[in-house]
Sequence to fold (343 residues):
Amino acid sequence: MPDTTAGKSLRSARDMIEKALREMADKSVLPKPGAERGVVGKIALRHILKMIDVVIAALEAPPESDSIVVYGILAEECEPVLGLSAGDVFSALVEMCGEPHGSSIRPELPRAKQAVIDTLRREIVAVTVEYRARPGETGVRIIEMLYGADRQKVRRKRIKQEIDWGDIPEDVRARIIRDGDEGVTLSLPLGRV
Amino acid sequence: MAFFIPLIIMAIGLALWNRIMVWAREQLFPWVAEHLPWMTETVKLAFTALDKYATAARRNVKAAWKQLRSYLLEQVIEFEKGVAPNTYVRRMTALMKNHLSGDAPVKRIVVEEDVAWDDLPEKYRKSLVAGDGGSYRMDVTRMRDQELEE
Fold:
């Protein structure tokens, strides 16, 4: 959220400090008594400047992509059904769906456990994510999971949620606008072996 | 303080009701974790099974439910026959607000799951056996409201 009140006031504070630092630099051309104190003050101000930059960056960070939200929902759904912890399933899904460990999607995410990946590959038959929307309007996201290790008796779970137009992934929105598709279905590449 | 189970819950059986509380919580949990993360503990508490002797716990559950209820407009559970023969579907539908202001958009969350015969309410099983092909619907929010009323 770049234009929040917090963002604006932080940015103006940042500009003021930068200006003060510049003025201090201009004046320090002529050495004066008490110049050392000025140096300390400048270091402190530079620190504050850096902190403000960090906060502004955090405020302006793009919201989580919808794929992260989908992994999160699936992880929560898998917990009661497969008896795995949601955190483990989340890391596993991120890696299985082609985001290598340590990539930008969640750099702090722990490495997925191989046993969890194996269980998911064995138990989950397929996961599809469908977006249905008209340009600019609230749409629907439908996650469908087919699961069951015994292929004779596959079970189905569907999670349907209304979703704001802006939260729909960009490429899906593009397809809806460009091709007039009202529904776009993606299937999660779970890398079955 | 006298404790009684409201008739409406007695009619479906306490065991099933406690299971419904678990399903209801599981349905809302991913959504709450995404949109109202500060509410996760409240949601857990709001769907806790009531212990008939613990009045203090009951008060906490009631407070949590009241708080959740200002975001949760309605939660309904439906059972019906699946497309394939001898399959059944449980569908939970919740209407949730993202934040409290009056004009906050209400979002619909639907979770549909294949369930086994054993997971169906007894009343519905009876009507199926009797050859009635209809569905079965319960208003979870209204029932919980009644259960927590004193």
The interface with chain A takes residues 26, 29-31, 33-34, 105, 107-114 of chain B (CB under 8 Å). Chain B has a mean pLDDT of 85. Chain B has six helices and four strands.
